[in-house]
Amino acid sequence: MSGPMSSLPKTGPLSDAAYARFAREVAKYPADQKQSAVMACLSIAQQEQGWVSPESEAAIAAYLDMAPIAVREVTTFYNMYNQQPVGQFKLNVCTNLPCQLRNGQAALEHLCQKLGIEPGGTTPDGLFTVQPCECLGACADAPVLLVNDRQMVSFMHNDRLDDLVDTLKAQAQ
Ligand code: FES
């Protein structure tokens, strides 16, 4: 059984609600393995702030009694963690080799050209971030992309990319 959660340090920009969720994640593991909750805590921070800031990483490191560099390694290893603020719709276009051979790079370039941004960039209205990503496990469906780390869309040739952008704009809040 782990010790009282209130004894874990609260620092940085995250809300009490985020820390309450951290505590629930930490409670899933033995007291000496609370670092196992790091991925969940990073996801909670990102849900609250839209990205994982250096301040959030430091707060999570303190909370889980981890070296800040160890938290940083997790943030930078996984594509789903945003290392800078992103738009309302994050479009991760696969540009690994199998997709490259089937217009993955062309899809990335088409989106960037249409939205007037560079790969990795965000539109000035804050709606779209477009970035290349690693294999999404759907190579046969290329070009493929992932919307907001959750929704995979396949066979994204230029007309379908245009439709996707229009659909997402209509959904924008
Ligand atoms: S290489 Fe693009 S989904 Fe696998």
UniProtKB/TrEMBL annotation:
Belongs to the complex I 24 kDa subunit family. The keyword Iron applies. PANTHER family: NADH DEHYDROGENASE [UBIQUINONE] FLAVOPROTEIN 2, MITOCHONDRIAL, NADH DEHYDROGENASE UBIQUINONE FLAVOPROTEIN 2, MITOCHONDRIAL. One of its GO terms (molecular function) is NADH dehydrogenase activity. Pfam families: 2Fe-2S_thioredx. This is NADH-quinone oxidoreductase subunit E. Its cofactor is [2Fe-2S] cluster. It comes from the Bacteria. Binds 1 [2Fe-2S] cluster. It catalyses: a quinone + NADH + 5 H(+)(in) = a quinol + NAD(+) + 4 H(+)(out). Signal peptide: none annotated. Keywords: 2Fe-2S, Iron, Iron-sulfur, Metal-binding. [2Fe-2S] cluster binds at residues 94, 99, 135, 139.
